[in-house]
Amino acid sequence: MILRYLCEKKNHPTAEQIYADLKPEAPALSLATVYRNLNLLCSLGEVRRLDTGENGDRFDADTSPHAHFICQHCQTVFDLFADLVDEKKAKKLLGDDFSLEKCSVFLYGLCPCCKQLKQ
């Protein structure tokens, strides 16, 4: 149910958002169960955990390589399907002493709606 929800939603929800949205559909669902299943899905590589620097991790069912833009006003997270980091270049920069496990790119700014509000 949690994986299906994440595949259908592209809003990068927190565990608390997932719980709140699924609770009416599954009254026996607990927040602990949501966290436990998210941890399992992340360990299986089915879901990506995003530490956006705000309160609570966000979750993304799209595990393909991509970056994220985070609006600093409304906290909405947007997918960016662009090769912003060349892993081969990153490995070359790090040298043989390092082992690159994963790469995450977060861009911060204002989304179009918030940018318009601020003007």
Number of helical segments with 4 or more residues: 5
Low-confidence stretches: none
The overall pLDDT average reads 91
Structural class assignment = alpha+beta
Question: Strand fraction band?
Answer: 15-25%
Main sheet?
A: 3 strands, mixed
Side by side, the strands of the main sheet go 4-3-5
> What's the oligomerization state?
single chain
- Computed over alpha carbons, the radius of gyration is 17 Å
Backbone shape? flat
Classify the helix fraction into a percent range: 25-40%
Task: List the secondary-structure elements in sequence, H or E.
Answer: HHHEEEEHEH
Instruction: Please report the distance between the alpha carbons of the first and last residues.
Output: 41 Å
Helix-strand blueprint:
Elements: H1 2-8, H2 15-22, H3 31-43, E1 48-50, E2 58-60, E3 67-71, E4 77-80, H4 87-94, E5 106-109, H5 112-118
Parallel strand pairs: 3-5
Antiparallel strand pairs: 1-2, 3-4
Helix pairs in contact: 2-3
List keywords for this structure.
119 residues, alpha+beta, two-stranded antiparallel sheet, 16% strand, flat
